[in-house]
Amino acid sequence: MNKNNITLALAITATMGISNHAAAAGFQLAEYSATGLGRAFAGEAAMADNASAQFRNPAMLTYLKGTQISTGAIYVDPNIDIEGRHTLLGQTSSADFANSAVIPNFYFSRPLTDKATIGIAFGTHFGMRTDLGTDFKASMFGNQAEVHTVEINPNLGYKINDQLSIGAGVRYVMASGHFGAALPTILGKTKLKYMEGEDNAWGWQAGTAWQINTHNRIGISYQSAVKLNLEGHASGLGYANKSLPGMLPIELPASAEIASFHQLNDQWAVHASVNWTDWSTFEKLEATIPDLGTNSPDLIKKENWKDNYRFAIGTTYQATNKLVLRSGIAYDTSAVDETNRTQTIPETDRTWLSVGAGYAWSKNLTLDAGFTYIFAKNAPMKESDDKHLEFGQFSGQTSGHIWLAGVQASYRF
What is the DSSP string of 145-162? Predict the structure, then answer.
């Protein structure tokens, strides 16, 4: 199993381009449907547009009518730059180092009884890919990384009464990734470290929905942490130019959401949400590489992250019987403070501006589209290695923005 790649990859990668590439804090992905994208994912734990609702709150399955299938994809185009100065090698920069990606999804729901509804979701909550290039002079601190996860999530929703619904589901996460660092020399780049690995692990989620009255609803959801033991191999100069087996434990953090939905009149609705992610569990990365001949873990990197919060508010406007328009704004706080931000973690506050639309093509088929622009706050950073002071230090700044565009098709039988 390729797990040590995600090990350092998840550390540096997850930190490096994830924050901006993933569009949510840390290396978390918010992009689970184009329907939600059009409102900046505001109020998701209290919304039930289609079968994708179960991915954020399984209790919302009880609000779906008939058997439903919903599928789509979101295109993520991050434009993230970094520039600064290395104390030994001078000025350096890397432009557009977070790679674009397409994030697909698939959801299915079916009522079992008038109270119980089952569903299954295929999507992802974490992922990223970055490449600082071969010319970046601070590449000894990391120059390429990738984290990729796929999640299979069966769910059950149950309607206790007309006001209260509950739901729960199992999460099976398949993860892989790689990380590379290179040492600049007079002969060009020398591979300093390269790690790749993979692992599969289980988690769970649960939620509830309270229908206060006909026009007002509150939803609460929780997703457990998922603990991975990333196993794979490490190679490069840092490992005596050998290919060594290894493992790095890492935890995908728990998260929670509280959301509300308010139908103001026949045309207008307002929805809002607050999200929390337990990033403070991400303190450091320590790999176990038995062939190094030491009993203590190999400290890869200190992270010292903090919990992250996301605030979102959106509106829905029923323009015609067939056309619905959406909009939203969100503010995503950074999962790292100024003193802990580094080159490999260009994590910073982000603001979302979103618009979207849905069109009822027929009685059974609905098409949705969403578009989002995210601008990230410029963030200073420093990078060094306490174990290798000869590597010098890099000081710089990251800046950038992200474009998101998604489409969704939902069919009800």
Answer: EEEEEEEEEEEEEEE-SS
**145/36 Cα distance (integer angstroms):** 28
- pLDDT score recorded for residue 43: 96
Are residues 160 and 166 in contact, defined by beta-carbon separation less than 8 angstroms?
Answer: yes
In order of their start, the domains of the chain are 3-412 (2.40.160.60)
Largest CA distance in the chain: 72
The pair of three-digit structure tokens given for residue 285, joined into one six-digit string: 């990365």
- From the list 228, 140, 249, 150, the residue with the least C-alpha distance to 189 is 140
Rounded to whole angstroms, the Cα distance separating 285 from 263 reads 46
Residues of the chain with pLDDT under 50: 1-21
The CA-to-CA distance between both ends of the chain, in Å, stands at 41
Query: What letter would DSSP give residue 371?
Result: E
Burial 373-408 (b: 16+ CB within 10 A, else e): ebebeebebebbeeeeeebbbbebebbbbbebebbb
Phi, psi (rounded to 5 degrees) for 32: -105, -15
- pLDDT in the model for residue 24: 64
Per-residue pLDDT reduced to its tens digit, 276-298: 999 898 888 777 888 877 777 77
Spatial separation of the C-alpha atoms in residues 296 and 218, rounded to whole Å: 48
Which whole-number Å values give the CA distances from 326 to 49, 209, 321, in the listed order? Answer: 12, 22, 15
C-alpha angle 102-106-109 in degrees, rounded to nearest 5: 160
* Amino acid in the structure at residue 130: T
Q: Tell me the two tokens of residue 346.
A: 């260009």
